[in-house]
Amino acid sequence: MQWSIEESWAPAHLIHDVDAIGISLYDYFRSRHIYPQRTRSRVSARMPDDEFQSHIQMDGKVPVLVIKQVALDQQHRPIEYRISYCRSDLYVFVCEE
């Protein structure tokens, strides 16, 4: 069962070889001495659209959590922007600073 759909963007100048990323963008960043230091997150809820329902196979009466995050490096520069669409009936969002 799929719980979420994520979209992620990173500045092109930080990715020298897309194939070298593997399964973890953050492992790739660390290998290039780019260290995520902080994340800003915004969480909202909305009703799922037809496309989301078809991918996740869920009832349209359950809201979706929309989490928009910006990850920043040591100099507070953005290194990733991510939008996550998560089933609210199966997902718990925890934020620690």
Automatic annotation (TrEMBL):
Designated name of the protein: GntR family transcriptional regulator
Single GO term (MF): DNA binding
Transmembrane segments: none
Highest taxon of the lineage: Bacteria
Start and end residues of each UbiC transcription regulator-associated domain: 4-91
Gene Ontology biological process terms, A to Z: negative regulation of DNA-templated transcription
SUPFAM superfamilies, alphabetized: Chorismate lyase-like (SSF64288)
InterPro entries with a match to the protein in the record: Bact_HTH_transcr_reg (IPR050679), Chorismate_lyase_/UTRA_dom_sf (IPR028978), UTRA (IPR011663)
